[in-house]
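Working notes for the structural subgroup meeting. M.R. asked for a predicted model of this chain before we commit to crystallization trials. I am recording the input and output together here so anyone reviewing the notebook later can reproduce the run.

Input as submitted:
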Amino acid sequence: MDTTGDGDWRDRWSLEDLPQPTDDPARARLDIDIFGYCLLHNTVPEPLLSAVRARLDDQAAAEKRLGLAFEDGGPRQQWGQFRDAAGHLRGNAFTAANGGINQRVWMLVNKGAPFREVLALAPMLDVVGHVLGEEFLLSSFTANIAKPGGVPMALHTDQWWAPEPTRRGRRPLPVGSMTRNRFDHDAALGAAAANSGAGRGVQCFGHARRHDHRQWRHPCGPG
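Returned structure, recorded in token form:
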């Protein structure tokens, strides 16, 4: 694998070169240094995994029963479309009654001890600490429950307050572009990684995917 130089990433990486699930901390750190993301294998052990699933199922069902569920993924619930044309918040838009299919459970740190135990797992702390140092703030901890029938989500960055890694209308930066030293090389970027399948990490229960949220990334859901 050649990790240097410009040009189309497919000339230097094969799909087999891209991060694979690993329980080796050194491999995970190297993957995030090179590609901007890593896949942690079997990060959440039993019986914690079963406890997390049960607590999430109960919480999601309770929020639906109480009319508090945030449900998106329908044609009128695209991520980022939180305001109407007049700039007002669409308070009741993200519901099943208005076409929402998926469900998001927010602020898990406040919704059960099993979720807080996940945050203390050594492999997670090792990777995050490798990027951010020993002290860092938790800005988001949510569950995305993707269901059949959801529409694809537009590419986005989660650090919405940070400068975009490229301008709108340009092809996305390929996987691995954590730094911005390739910012103005349109001809060298090649096809979008999102169209090639590269970087589409599968997040299964018990596994974890860590990435730099400044990257453009694929939709959260079945799209």
